[in-house]
Amino acid sequence: MFFFYFSFTISGLICAEGELWKEQRRFVHSCLRLFGASKIGPQENKLECLIMEHVLDFVKYIEGIGPIPIDPLQPLRHSLGSAINIIVFGKSWSREDETWKWLQYLQEEGIQHVGVAGPLNFLPFLRFMPKFNQTMNFLVDGKHETHKVYRQIINDQEFWVKQQTADDFDTNRNVSNIIQAFLSERERKKNNPEVVEKFYNDQQFHHLLADLFGAGLDTTLTTLR
């Protein structure tokens, strides 16, 4: 699709193709099993407990508002997003945190803008029209700004790598989120720089985080609504 080629490059999971898609799909699938998305194994209850924790947080918040009309979308987005944040980034934010509010805004608006920009996939010359040009600028600028946030979160977790042994990397026994899993995978493959450059470079890292957070939140929220 031209729009995604032009604006986002072929990285991440959603827009990946060929060997990159296969490798990243394998990586994400193994991460989800590690985090508890499996019916068997020692981690089988881990993901369920995380989900229940944020379900109860949502219920508690609604009960605390009292018997007044309320649109549950925003508190639902926070509770669901917090669970996804822990899986992807290894951290979550408070309801009033400005960074979290901004990420939610970009996620919600970005989904709508991608829909508006759909015709660019078939009529790329439309990008020169003001309507589509503004949409593309919003998406591209938003991508760059969110990647700065991701870079900071990654930097905050890189100390974790220094605390691990070679055996820890081989077994992934201390991995608790996607960022740690990606860093661990990159560390395991550091003696094969071609593989790291092809599948585990920084650009791929940032786009993968964006896909897992954005698509995970949007699709699950749409299902619940």
UniProtKB/TrEMBL annotation:
<comment type="similarity">
    <text>Belongs to the cytochrome P450 family.</text>
</comment>
<keyword id="KW-0503">Monooxygenase</keyword>
<dbReference type="GO" id="GO:0020037">
    <property type="term" value="F:heme binding"/>
</dbReference>
<protein>
    <submittedName>
        <fullName>Uncharacterized protein</fullName>
    </submittedName>
</protein>
<dbReference type="InterPro" id="IPR050182">
    <property type="entry name" value="Cytochrome_P450_fam2"/>
</dbReference>
<dbReference type="GO" id="GO:0006805">
    <property type="term" value="P:xenobiotic metabolic process"/>
</dbReference>
<feature type="signal peptide">
    <location>
        <begin position="1"/>
        <end position="18"/>
    </location>
</feature>
<dbReference type="GO" id="GO:0005506">
    <property type="term" value="F:iron ion binding"/>
</dbReference>
<dbReference type="Pfam" id="PF00067">
    <property type="entry name" value="p450"/>
</dbReference>
<dbReference type="GO" id="GO:0016712">
    <property type="term" value="F:oxidoreductase activity, acting on paired donors, with incorporation or reduction of molecular oxygen, reduced flavin or flavoprotein as one donor, and incorporation of one atom of oxygen"/>
</dbReference>
<dbReference type="InterPro" id="IPR001128">
    <property type="entry name" value="Cyt_P450"/>
</dbReference>
<keyword id="KW-0408">Iron</keyword>
<dbReference type="GO" id="GO:0005737">
    <property type="term" value="C:cytoplasm"/>
</dbReference>
<dbReference type="GO" id="GO:0008395">
    <property type="term" value="F:steroid hydroxylase activity"/>
</dbReference>
<dbReference type="InterPro" id="IPR036396">
    <property type="entry name" value="Cyt_P450_sf"/>
</dbReference>
<keyword id="KW-0479">Metal-binding</keyword>
<keyword id="KW-0732">Signal</keyword>
<dbReference type="GO" id="GO:0006082">
    <property type="term" value="P:organic acid metabolic process"/>
</dbReference>
<keyword id="KW-0560">Oxidoreductase</keyword>
